[in-house]
Write a structure and sequence with these properties.
The complex is a heterotrimer of chains A (309), B (349) and C (343). Chain B is α/β, with parallel strands linked by helices. Chain B contains 13 helices and 13 strands. The relative contact order of chain C is 0.14. The chains are: A mainly alpha (309), B alpha/beta (349), C mainly alpha (343).
């Protein structure tokens, strides 16, 4: 298993490197930040000094070498805006997003499995049609619009929930509900489809011929086999959650890494942007490894081959 | 001229108790072209310690009959009338929940394709032990011990080591043994074997059939063997029910039926076996092919391929009627023969 | 993440009871039933009409398409004409005339008219993006899956890299650098969606390599491109088209998000997402400014989702029969007349 792990880590490292370099390049393309942080009447000399001090006048390759050196030392430089260590800012913002994303995903998976299994037991029955429509609607509603509607109904009109911020558990409700809907909708469809497939597999007949009841069929036999496609999609969705988090954090003022990234782009704060993006990329990378491990645990056929009988 | 001879040791003792009695069974199938009848008024008996063969071509409804008996029909198929009496209880009248109690302890079924039918994500031992956990409430550990015993019973070497292996790690023959083991785990009174050897080599076939026979003798099971292979029927079965286009066309002890068939279809089948063919001579075959389910003719189902067809065949579907053997040397306790043909008498030489 | 999204299976139906086509048609007996008409399998369009939801979905999408093409001409300058007399009117008030049926904004512009214009913009971004991604991704994927080896590995790595980066972020960064013109938005959205087609097409193409008919074609000396074009593409196409329908939703949502954040469609152009963003500050006073555009997005997306779900089944020959089954209640059995009745 360890060799498998090592292989997977190595093969996933490449995308990670490309992402880091890519962000470096793109960030440089947003223009010379000197123009943003100096007053309009700044002299050429001040600009030149600023550029030299920030190392932005060096050839790109030298800048990149500095950058990689810094990455390995976990030093991303300081924020151009606040002077704080970029790494520190990113790390401070990360947990808020992580909590939001993790809670959302766990809730989405649990709810989707329940609803998906229930729908799959009688394909094209009433339960199936209802859940199909609901999940489709859930996957179709744009998160920013839902957030706005949510705020309008629950915060402004009814006053039950706050419009923004992180204070108290009520503040979690709208952000999570908004973020949850799309993954839930997609997962229900996937789980239902995978369960219907699994339930029509021949081994279900075999289990029935031994006298297995509905509960055992669903939980013991079908679910195990349906888990794999659900797992893939859950992994993709978690990446998509980052997208969602950007929007949701912006609307609700949630101090997470998504908001940090948008802010740093708008303010041309290189160091913070790079730190934030790298942190996100590493998190996704770790998630993928975990998902692969999950596959291997679930399905023996995927594991590195043992001797055939 | 029949060129297939039945084995000498088959028994046709009428005193053996009837385990399974199917009568008037109909199964409807919903297809894009409408609802068709896939199994029509089918009836047969299986006795303890004997093997009944359901013989017919692909698509004749024998598999569907077996599934109807086992309660494992697909959602597009419905039983539309008939009785399925297992030791007196009519399975067709039971609710799915009640029926589930029979699956395993009373009725076992061996499926055709072992690889697809075994759950790929669980070890073989878990799957073997499942019936015990469901019906006897055993713990996982106890069920595993039972699984090892089962594996030994069907002749799988090194069961203690192999019990944790996965289905894809076994050969085809071994997998089939596992399926058989699962079916007989709780010593059912009736075992249905759906083409258990079709996907296997000839040598492995023989081993599997031998295993089935010994298991049958151990616990006096009734075995219903679904097959299209005449040789297997001749070797292994005691009685046979020949099916065509969803109908039973002939029944009786294998030896008698094969020696003197009373239905043109059975006769045609037997004559198609190329055992004594001479090189250069044309092989016999029945011209044409079975009718599509939504185009089954009224009247005799075999009319389009029958060499003896007359007007009456097209007008009236022959019922499955007893056949009186010309030579009453057939012992008093013998299983009766029946054929569904207006001209079954003519076929008796 | 090596495995692609769930693919429709190419396995035959699990029931072994489907009637097998007779090689030689049986002789027609004199007492034949007049059931020949029932022999015709329903065509794709009839199949669509059987499913009310799918038909409704198709109708909605058709309406959206027609609005995008003809709507702006019908609306004239209603969308841009400012009329302060009618500012901030609530919707559903017939007294204001049909132009203001969905209300007006702070400048007196008709929300209905703006919605129609926005339809064109939204569709004009989503359709080309989907088309480009579909063509590029699919061809690339089929090619990679056919040749296997390093071509496949490299292609998959590229797909992984693109997919491992949150697309919204990529779009935001890129559009910040280059101006957010419609062309740029289309291109960046297409780029972020190419991996989906790439993976799916590659997976199907690679799976087909192991099929005997491809080997057979190779034995006949067919060139790779011919094999790809004649054998692989027709099998892969239905899956890809279904995917494209789903992708239409995703791209539309993505463009809306970008416009909402201010990095997408820029004023004076208008898209649904931009309208939602512009209405945000008036939520308490003029809720209709944000709500209606959002509803438009929701309805269109749901319709596309539904149609895609139907397409998934209808275009897979192994699954299509499910749509044509008679309902359980209406049993119209083809009668086989037995003179003496059943026993």
């Amino acid at each position: 298993m360890l060799t498998y792990l090592r292989k997977r880590i190595l093969s996933s490292a490449l995308p990670l490197v490309v992402v880091i370099v890519g962000v470096f390049a793109l960030a440089r393309l947003t223009g010379n930040p000197a123009t943003l942080y100096l007053p309009l009447n700044a002299t050429e000399q001040m600009r030149a000094d600023f550029t030299a001090r920030m190392g932005l006048d060096q050839p790109l390759l030298v800048q990149m070498a500095d950058y990689f050196g810094g990455v390995l030392k976990l030093d991303f430089g300081e924020s151009l805006r606040t002077g704080e260590s970029a790494a520190a800012m990113a790390l401070r913002a990360f947990p808020a997003t992580l909590q939001l994303a993790a809670t959302t995903m766990v809730l989405a998976i649990i709810l989707a499995v329940i609803v998906g299994c229930w729908a799959a037991l009688k394909p094209n029955g009433v339960a199936d049609r209802i859940s199909s429509f609901v999940s489709m609607a859930a996957a179709s509603i744009p998160d920013f619009w839902l957030a706005i509607v949510g705020i309008w109904i629950f915060a402004i009109t009814l006053g039950w929930l706050p419009t923004s911020g992180v204070n108290g558990s009520e503040a979690w409700v709208l952000p999570i509900a908004t973020l949850l809907l799309r993954p839930f909708g997609v997962l229900v469809q996937i789980v239902r489809g995978a369960m219907v497939s699994a339930l029509s597999e021949p081994y279900i007949k075999l289990a029935r011929s031994k006298g297995a009841g509905d509960v055992r069929i669903v939980t013991h036999h079908a679910l195990r086999n349906a888990a794999a496609p659900a797992l893939t999609v859950a992994g993709d969705l978690t990446v998509g959650l980052v997208n969602g988090a950007v929007v949701v954090e912006t609307i609700f003022g949630w101090p997470g890494i998504g908001k940090l990234m948008i802010d740093s782009i708008l303010q041309r704060d290189f160091a913070v942007l790079q730190a934030a993006v790298l942190l996100t990329a590493v998190a996704i990378f770790v998630l993928n490894i975990l998902i692969d491990l999950g596959y291997a645990l679930l399905d023996a056929r995927v594991r590195p081959a043992t001797v055939k009988a | 001229m029949s060129t297939v001879t039945a084995a000498e040791t088959t028994t046709t003792d009428r005193s053996l108790p009837v385990v399974l009695k199917v009568e008037g069974l109909n199964v409807d199938l919903r297809t894009p072209r409408g609802t068709v009848r896939a199994v029509d008024n089918v009836g047969f008996e299986a006795r303890a310690g004997q093997t009944l063969a359901l013989l017919g071509e692909s698509g004749c409804g024998k598999s569907m009959t077996a599934k109807a008996v086992a309660g494992l029909l697909d959602p597009i198929a419905d039983v539309d009338g008939g009785e399925i009496l297992l030791n007196g209880t009519d399975l067709a009248r039971l609710s799915p929940k009640q029926r589930r109690k029979f699956a395993g302890p009373e009725l076992g079924i061996v499926f055709q394709d072992a690889l697809t039918v075994l759950n790929p994500v669980y070890p073989v031992g878990t799957q073997l032990g499942e019936a015990f956990r469901i019906h006897h409430g055993l713990s996982a550990k106890q069920a595993k011990e039972k699984a090892v015993d089962l594996m030994r019973r069907v002749g799988i070497p090194e069961p203690e080591a192999r019990v944790n292996a996965y289905p894809h790690q076994f050969s085809g023959g071994m997998r089939q043994r596992i399926l058989i083991a699962m079916a007989v785990a709780l010593n059912p009174k009736l075992l249905i074997a759906d083409e258990p050897t079709t996907a296997l080599d000839v040598t492995v076939q023989a081993q599997i059939m031998a295993l089935l026979k010994s298991l049958r003798e151990e616990s006096d099971m009734a075995v219903v063997l679904i097959t299209h292979d005449l040789a297997v029927v001749a070797e292994e079965a005691d009685t046979v029910a020949v099916m065509y286009a969803g109908n039973v066309v002939e029944t009786g002890p294998v030896a008698d039926v094969f020696a003197g068939p009373r239905h043109p279809y059975t006769k045609g089948l037997l004559e198609s076996v190329p055992v004594n063919a001479e090189r250069g001579a044309e092989l016999n075959s029945i011209p044409g092919s079975p009718p599509e389910l939504h185009k089954i003719p009224s009247g005799c189902v075999y009319q389009d391929r029958c060499p003896l067809v007359q007007e009456i065949c097209r007008a009236e579907r022959p019922k499955l009627l007893p056949v009186v053997p010309k030579a009453p040397a057939a012992a008093d306790g013998a299983t009766p023969r029946a054929a569904a043909c207006h001209f079954s008498e003519e076929l008796d030489k | 993440m090596a495995t692609p999204l769930v693919q429709p299976g190419h396995q035959p139906p699990t029931s072994d009871a489907l009637p097998e086509p007779a090689a030689v048609p049986p002789l027609e007996p004199p007492a034949a039933e007049a059931a020949e008409a029932a022999d015709k399998r329903p065509g794709l369009f009839r199949l669509l009409l059987r499913d009310k939801f799918a038909t409704a979905a198709a109708a909605v999408l058709l309406l959206v398409g027609l609005t995008a093409v003809f709507g702006p001409a019908l609306m004239g300058d209603l969308a841009t004409k400012q009329n302060l007399l009618f500012a901030n009117k609530a919707p559903f008030n017939p007294a204001n005339g049909w132009e203001y049926f969905l209300g007006s904004d702070s400048l007196g512009r008709s929300v209905l008219a703006r919605l129609v214009i926005a339809t064109r913009t939204t569709v004009a971004v989503a359709l080309p993006a989907v088309a480009i991604a579909l063509v590029v991704g699919s061809l690339w994927g089929v090619w990679a899956g056919y040749h296997r080896g390093w071509r496949e590995t490299v292609s998959m790595r590229v797909a992984d890299v693109i997919m491992s980066f949150p697309s919204l972020l990529l779009a935001v960064v890129v559009l910040y650098v280059f101006n957010p013109s419609i062309a740029n938005i289309v291109l960046i959205l297409a780029l972020t969606r190419i991996p989906i087609y790439l993976r799916t097409a590659r997976a199907e193409s690679a799976e087909l390599q192991s099929r005997t008919f491809v080997d057979a074609a190779r034995t006949f000396g067919a060139k790779p491109n011919a094999i790809i074009g004649r054998h692989v593409v027709p099998i892969v196409l239905p899956t890809l088209l279904t995917l494209a329908t789903l992708e239409f939703c995703y791209v539309m949502l993505a463009e809306s998000s970008l416009s909402f954040l201010g990095i997408g469609i820029q004023p004076p152009d208008v898209s649904w997402g931009l309208m939602v963003s512009q209405g945000r500050q008036y939520l308490q006073t003029a809720w209709w400014l944000s709500i209606f555009p959002g509803l438009a997005i929701v309805v269109t997306t749901i319709a596309a989702n539904m149609l895609a779900a139907w397409l998934r089944i209808a275009t897979d020959p192994a699954q299509r029969w499910r749509l044509a089954l008679p309902r359980k209640r209406l049993i119209a059995r083809i009668p086989a007349k037995t003179v003496e009745g059943d026993k």
